[in-house]
Specification:
Elements: E1 2-7, E2 21-24, E3 29-31, H1 40-43, E4 49-52, H2 58-61, H3 67-70, E5 79-83, H4 85-95, E6 108-111, E7 116-118, E8 122-129, E9 135-142, E10 145-150, H5 162-165, E11 170-174, H6 182-188, H7 193-203, E12 207-211, H8 225-231, E13 235-237, E14 242-245
Parallel strand pairs: 3-4, 4-5, 5-6, 10-11, 11-12, 12-13
Antiparallel strand pairs: 1-2, 1-14, 2-3, 7-8, 8-9, 9-10
Length: 246
C-alpha cells in the first residue's frame, strides 16, 4: 500500500513544503487538507474521496477550498469530509462563510461517531490528543497493512496514545522542532525529535516518518535525523511528494 506525502510543513507553506496533507491514492483517502491539498488531483484515481481531518486549525483545513480544482474534469461522488462535529460546524460556518469563500464545494460533512469502515476492507479508529483547541490521532488498519497519523501534539515516552498506535507498520508523526527548541514545542503544543523517536520505540512501530516540519527551518536536516535514529533506527524525514510503501 502507498502513502503520498502531499504537504509536510506546519503553520504555513514555504518554498520547500506545503502544509499538512497525506493521501492513500489507491483508496481515495486523504488525511488533513492543508495547502498540499491542491496536489490531490495529481494522484486521484478513485470515483470517491474521503477526507479525514485531525482538527480545524487553518494549516490543516484551508485546502478544502481547493476542491473545485482538485476534482475538475472528474466525476467524484461522494466527497465526504470526516471530523469532530464541532470542528466541522466551525468549518461550515467560518471557512465557507460567503464573506470568506463564496460557494460551498460539492461535499458532505460526516461527524465522526465511532470507527469508520474504509475501502479495501480497512478500518479507521481515532483518539484524542493534547493540543490547543483539541485534535485527533488516526489509526488505519487493513489486512496486512497498518498506519498511524499523529500530528499537532506534544510527544512523550509515556503518552496515553502510545497504546492506540502500538505495532503499526508506519507511524507518521509530527516533529515540528529539533531538540534545541523543546521548550518552545511544549509552549505551542508540538513535538521535538527525541520525544517523537521515544514514542516510536515505546509503541514498537515498524517505520517512523517525520512530518509537520517548521517552515522556517530550511536546512536539509531541520530536525536532527541522527538524533532520532540513535533512538529509533528506522526513522526518515518526510518531504513533499514522497511516496512511502507500507
Amino acid at each position: 500500500m502507498k502513502l503520498v506525502l502531499l504537504g509536510t510543513a506546519g503553520y504555513h507553506p514555504s518554498d520547500q513544503r506545503q502544509t499538512a496533507c497525506l493521501m492513500l491514492p489507491e483508496l481515495g483517502i486523504v488525511l488533513d487538507a492543508g495547502t498540499g491539498m491542491y496536489r490531490v488531483g495529481d494522484f486521484l484515481t478513485t470515483d470517491r474521496l474521503d477526507i479525514f481531518l485531525t482538527h480545524s486549525h487553518l494549516d490543516h483545513i484551508v485546502g478544502l477550498t481547493y476542491l473545485f480544482d482538485v476534482t475538475a474534469g472528474r466525476q467524484v461522488e461522494p466527497i465526504t469530509i470526516h471530523g469532530e462535529g464541532e470542528k466541522l460546524a466551525a468549518i461550515r460556518e467560518h471557512l465557507f462563510s460567503e464573506l470568506i469563500f463564496p460557494v460551498m464545494p460539492p461535499c458532505r460533512f460526516e461527524p465522526l461517531a465511532g470507527p469508520v469502515k474504509l475501502a479495501g476492507g480497512g478500518r479507521l479508529d481515532y483518539f484524542p490528543l493534547e493540543h490547543p483547541g483539541g485534535t485527533l490521532g488516526f489509526r488505519l488498519d487493513w489486512p496486512g497493512h497498518s498506519l498511524a497519523y499523529v500530528t499537532d501534539t506534544t510527544a512523550r515516552a509515556d503518552a496515553e496514545y502510545i497504546e492506540r498506535i502500538r505495532g503499526v507498520d508506519l507511524l507518521v508523526h509530527e516533529c515540528n522542532f529539533p531538540d534545541a527548541q523543546a521548550d518552545f514545542a511544549e509552549q505551542t503544543g508540538h513535538s521535538w525529535t527525541t520525544a517523537v523517536a521515544e514514542v516510536a520505540r515505546a509503541a514498537g512501530v515498524g517505520h517512523l516518518m517525520l512530518v509537520h516540519i517548521n517552515p522556517l527551518a530550511t536546512a536539509a536536516d531541520p530536525v536532527g535525523l541522527a538524533t532520532a535514529r540513535a533512538i529509533f533506527p528506522k526513522t526518515d524525514l518526510g518531504h513533499d511528494r514522497l511516496v512511502v510503501e507500507f
